[in-house]
């Protein structure tokens, strides 16, 4: 279901809201794209011939300023800048360059360069002054200023928490250090914030290969560590500290290369393969409890030599990617949707005039893509909160939520009654400046989570620990809902649920403490949107199994007059005289004993302290039961026997 509306949108500042710095791309063999029309248009005027690394920068209106392969720098007229050669990047470095504007100075930019395969040039920066050479720009004498060496081939950048400075992050070769450099109005701070975290990249120069990317909101970071793994991290845009490493893809001996986040930052895409296996484009749900297990193969390329390469988010909200030596780019048209609905298109953009791909695409400051309509909570029946990014000074706004409802709040809330796809439009007014912003959003159904029966088990070996198969509760918890649409995830306690620390093997889960009741949290989430979820809980408990004596001696007594005569073979027995032997060392307060006349345990002996036999020899059946769980019961038996009195003969 899709509701499409068109509404004219007015904004305080075009430059503040619709950033154009990433609207022009140059890459590969003379290839280029122009996004200023809203869709990518192929360019044929680029001078780059680069296997991998490249970088481009435009102004806020989307007009080209300059571009580079990390070695040479071309101005907007596609001419080499004065002093614009022999930078210390390398066209065969994954991310040989990234361009950072100097805050509060529209003419000054920094080109950060990264050499290939951990070579001695390391990470450097060079300064570009666009006020020189008649406004076309020169590379100044502040050139190839080394920050550290050796380095891997990866570098990325994002705005700081306040949005007025930048963090540039690279990774060393020879250890597990990330180095974050702050770019401020005073220039590049050469003292790095060092985070020693995650995989150590050393011992093999091929491990240096692979992209490093921030999420558009700057809270997450993914590193493709070539031939090792792919790791997800948290990033603090205030301090520059990187933390909480999680391996989301283990790829020993397989090259992982390109990475990109969806606009929301909730989904990631990876390209890997190439040298030793078929190339794949993999999607990961970053909201999943087990991110690695959430992997979905979106595309599998079996053709040899035409490897999948870089991934790059575009200004249109789509992710584009390269196929080696081909004259087209592929696209992920709906990158914020899980599975095949992300709409992969292998031949999305045709390049022109003999230009073609190699491996690379130009990386940008990822904050450039954190603009437009923000949405928090896209679940049916709950409050969806909308806000604007890229402009904090909007004076008025008119929203249309795509379902016939509107709002004039600058940051409105809205509740959708039906699941589906909606086109949300917003109009904000100040002065005469205008721009247009719409966003397709998917509102997903919230599943129900039905509380199942508790799992109460009897312990076979009486150590108090039991291996539970929690997944046997799935059917009861889903209660008729389609398991292909919803996922059940289990958590050992409330704290683990709050920290999204799920039980990794719910089909083989051991309780935490012997003989202690434990409450399990079960979450049912919509596979389309993991944030649409419900929870329930149930208890698991392990109970001591009775271990009665199974080889009881007979309870014998001489005939007496407690019943009838002392010669009739009938007496009253106190069956409880066997209790200590029956309990076999287990607690008499924890376990109860029930006595029966028959093996099927249906004829209860109501007064075992005064039981009258009917035959001189009988079998008494006993059921030993755990008082806390009557299902934990074990039967046994013993014989009772009336012995005849000796016959005394008088002489």
Automatic annotation (TrEMBL):
Alphabetized InterPro entries for the sequence: Ig-like_fold, PKD/Chitinase_dom, PKD_dom, PKD_dom_sf
Pfam family name, one: PKD_4
Keywords: Signal
Signal peptide: 1-18
Domain PKD: 380-450
CDD domains per UniProt: PKD (cd00146)
Cited SMART domains: PKD
Protein name, as recorded: PKD domain-containing protein
Native species: Flavobacterium omnivorum
Source organism phylogeny: Bacteria, Pseudomonadati, Bacteroidota, Flavobacteriia, Flavobacteriales
């Amino acid at each position: 279901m899709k509701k499409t509306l068109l509404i004219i949108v007015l904004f305080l500042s075009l430059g503040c809201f619709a950033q154009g710095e990433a609207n022009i791309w140059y890459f590969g063999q003379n290839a280029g794209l122009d996004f200023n029309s809203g869709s990518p248009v192929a360019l044929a005027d680029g001078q780059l011939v680069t296997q991998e690394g490249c970088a481009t920068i435009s102004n806020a209106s989307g007009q080209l300023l300059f571009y580079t392969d990390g070695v040479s720098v071309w101005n907007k007229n596609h001419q080499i800048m004065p002093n614009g050669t022999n930078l210390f990047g390398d066209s065969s470095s994954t991310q040989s360059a990234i361009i950072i504007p100097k805050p509060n100075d529209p003419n000054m930019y920094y080109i950060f360069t990264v050499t290939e395969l951990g070579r001695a040039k390391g990470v450097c920066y060079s300064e570009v002054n666009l006020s020189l050479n008649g406004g076309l720009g020169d590379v100044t004498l502040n050139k190839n200023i080394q920050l550290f060496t050796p380095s891997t081939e990866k570098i990325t950048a994002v705005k700081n928490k306040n949005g007025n400075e930048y963090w540039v992050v690279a990774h060393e070769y020879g250890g597990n250090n990330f180095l974050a450099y702050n770019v401020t109005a005073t220039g590049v701070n050469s003292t790095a914030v060092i985070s020693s975290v995650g995989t150590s990249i050393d011992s093999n120069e091929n491990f240096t290969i692979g992209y490093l990317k921030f999420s558009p909101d700057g809270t997450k970071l993914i590193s493709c560590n070539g031939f090792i793994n792919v790791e997800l991290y948290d990033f603090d845009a205030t301090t520059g500290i990187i933390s909480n490493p999680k391996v989301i893809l283990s790829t020993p001996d397989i090259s992982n290369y390109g990475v990109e986040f969806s606009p929301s930052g909730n989904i990631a895409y990876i390209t890997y393969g190439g040298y030793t296996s078929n190339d794949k484009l993999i999607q990961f749900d970053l909201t999943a409890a087990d991110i690695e297990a959430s992997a979905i193969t979106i595309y599998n390329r079996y053709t040899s030599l035409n490897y999948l390469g870089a991934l790059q988010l575009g200004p249109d909200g789509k992710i584009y990617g390269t196929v080696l030596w081909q004259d087209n780019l592929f696209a992920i048209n709906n990158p914020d949707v899980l599975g095949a609905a992300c709409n992969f298109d292998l031949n999305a953009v045709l390049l022109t005039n003999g230009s073609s791909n190699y491996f690379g695409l130009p990386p940008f400051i990822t904050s450039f893509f954190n603009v437009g309509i923000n949405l928090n909570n896209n679940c049916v029946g709950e409050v969806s909160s909308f806000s604007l990014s890229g402009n904090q000074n909007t004076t008025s706004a008119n929203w249309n939520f795509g379902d016939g409802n509107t709002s004039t709040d600058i940051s409105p809330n809205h509740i959708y009654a039906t699941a589906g796809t909606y086109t949300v439009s917003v109009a904000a007014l100040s002065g005469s400046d205008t721009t247009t912003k719409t966003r397709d959003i998917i509102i997903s159904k919230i599943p129900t989570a039905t509380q199942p029966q508790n799992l109460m088990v009897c312990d076979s070996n009486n150590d108090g620990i039991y291996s539970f198969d929690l997944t046997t509760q799935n059917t009861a918890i889903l209660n008729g809902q389609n398991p292909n649409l919803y996922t059940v995830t289990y958590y050992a306690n409330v704290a683990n649920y709050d920290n999204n620390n799920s039980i990794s093997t719910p089909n083989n889960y051991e309780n935490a403490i012997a003989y202690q009741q434990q409450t399990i949290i079960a979450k049912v989430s919509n596979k389309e949107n993991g944030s649409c979820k419900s929870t329930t809980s149930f208890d698991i408990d392990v109970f001591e199994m009775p271990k009665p004596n199974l080889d009881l001696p007979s309870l014998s007594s001489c005939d007496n007059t407690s019943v009838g005569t002392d010669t009739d073979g009938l007496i009253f027995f106190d069956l409880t005289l066997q209790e200590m032997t029956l309990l076999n060392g287990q607690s008499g307060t924890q376990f109860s004993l029930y006595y029966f006349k028959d093996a099927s345990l249906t004829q209860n002996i109501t007064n075992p302290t005064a039981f009258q036999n009917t035959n001189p020899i009988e079998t008494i059946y006993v059921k030993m039961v755990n008082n806390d769980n009557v299902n934990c019961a074990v039967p046994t038996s013993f014989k009772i026997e009336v012995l005849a009195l000796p016959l005394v003969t008088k002489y």
